[in-house]
Write a structure and sequence with these properties.
The chain is of the alpha+beta class and 289 residues long. Helices cover 36% and strands 24% of the residues.
Length: 289
């Protein structure tokens, strides 16, 4: 462990103490992994040699009049505060556009703070002071004459890899989130598990946050693709819908958790959707038809 690693982790523990003091009620701060702080402490004490997982948690905020409740999803990289933390705010009091505007403003505020300083407490206070203004903003603009509203945004595609995708409730959550956010792509279940989503960048990022919380081990975003668009985004889609894939499995499918998907069939599926280059990115090997 380097001196910088130790300093960062010690500062993270210090900030967690500050946050628990600011929010003394148990329901105000909820750790994704209840043992994460203890594991960091043991790592610093030299009891455990393996690098502990990130400290990830949710802060549940209320405005002074308690009219607006929000959830702040926080993930602390091991080298925070030398690097920025990952923050995302959501609230049932805001629509998707308002939520997007709030998170962009929060990111702008965070970038104004001095790098290397603890900032979660500052972000929490900023949100409590400013969140109410976003529930009354972001009214949709009137549609211009001609019936088509011209927008400029970022079309995004994410390729997500997991060691496996088995559980029915997880598969349902992936399908429901993709449908709700108007994303197309697929979910390859089994071992390995692969998810591709495409749509507006903000929707893709929201999907990624939704399925990662609570903490899902053995999952990573392997590759992303982005394009600036003005108008109809559908012309950039490689997939017409979002579907669940199950190719011929080797093993006792449904009886044991050791089955594997047929990657040859999966490569042909990617090839059909003009995405065969992704195979090597996902698995680190080349494939032939």
């Amino acid at each position: 462990m380097t001196a910088m690693d130790r300093e960062c982790l010690e500062l993270q523990l210090l900030e967690m103490e500050m946050l628990f003091s600011m929010f003394p009620n148990k329901e105000d701060i909820v750790l994704d992994d209840k043992s994460s702080i203890l594991r960091v402490q043991r790592y610093l004490e030299g009891v455990c040699e393996a690098l502990p997982p990130r400290i990830e948690f949710s802060i549940f905020l209320k405005t002074e009049d308690s009219q607006i409740k929000s959830q702040v999803l926080v993930s602390l990289p091991h080298d925070y505060p030398k690097v920025d933390p990952e923050l995302y705010v959501r609230s049932s009091a805001m629509d998707r556009q308002q939520q997007s505007m709030l998170n962009k403003s929060l990111a702008s505020y965070m970038s104004s703070l001095e790098r290397g300083e603890l900032c979660i407490t500052n972000a929490s206070q900023w949100l409590q002071d400013n969140i109410s203004s976003y529930t009354q903003s972001a009214k949709p603009e009137e549609e211009p004459l001609g019936g088509i509203q011209e927008t400029t945004d970022t079309f995004h595609r994410m390729w997500i890899y997991s060691h496996h995708i088995y559980r029915q409730e997880l598969r349902k959550k992936i399908l429901d989130s993709a449908k709700r956010l108007n994303l197309t792509g697929f979910c390859l279940t089994g071992k390995p598990g692969v998810v591709c989503i495409e749509g507006m960048k903000g929707h893709c990022e929201e999907f990624w946050r939704d399925i990662r919380y609570p903490n899902w081990k053995h999952i990573s975003c392997k590759h992303t693709e982005s394009h600036q668009v003005s108008g109809d985004i559908d012309v950039l889609r490689l997939f017409d819908t979002f579907e669940e894939l199950q190719f011929a499995a080797h093993g006792d499918y449904g009886l044991r958790n050791d089955y594997h998907m047929d990657l040859g069939q999966f490569f042909e599926y990617l090839k059909h959707h003009k995405s065969e280059h992704i195979f090597q990115i996902l698995f680190g090997i080349e494939s032939k038809s």
